[in-house]
From TrEMBL:
InterPro entries: DUF4143 (IPR025420). It holds the Pfam family DUF4143. It comes from the Bacteria. Residues 2-81 form the DUF4143 domain. This is DUF4143 domain-containing protein.
């Protein structure tokens, strides 16, 4: 797993947002790097000790971030640089859930949209902005 300062990387590959958002531009990898960096930083003050890893199997099912606590409970996080999300975006999370059974707590697709949406049991699409917003009590 490799991630860098996404702000510096974005500055290196594009001088303005229009270039960065063009088809084929690296916005997706930059957003993924940003999310991984943010998750890694937030784990330093988490009340639970959690390991951050990546999941990929031989059939190319993949999950960008796998958060696992000491009890073996897992939350999977997939990052999509899109304003809409569909069932196929949960492909890797569903595979991971099937392999882990009850140890799979939740699967989240972080995307650039604005609404939290259900996609089945334990699966949600959540705006990437949730990473820095505090939920109301």
């Amino acid at each position: 797993m490799v991630f860098v300062d996404s702000g510096i990387a974005a500055n290196e590959v594009a001088m303005d947002a229009r270039t960065l958002l063009r088809p084929g531009a690296p916005f997706g990898p930059l957003l993924e790097s940003f999310v991984l960096s943010e998750l890694s930083r937030q784990l330093t003050w988490s009340e639970q000790q959690v390991e951050l890893s990546h999941y990929r199997d031989r059939d190319t099912y993949e999950v960008d971030a796998v958060l696992e606590n000491r009890s073996g409970q897992v939350v999977g996080v997939e990052v999509k640089a899109a304003s809409t999300v569909g069932p196929d975006d949960f492909r890797g999370l569903r595979r991971l859930a099937g392999r882990l059974g009850d140890d799979f707590v939740a699967g989240v697709v972080l995307y650039t949209g604005t609404s939290t949406l259900p996609f089945g049991e334990k699966l949600r699409a959540v705006p990437v902005s949730a990473l820095w917003q505090v939920a109301a009590p």
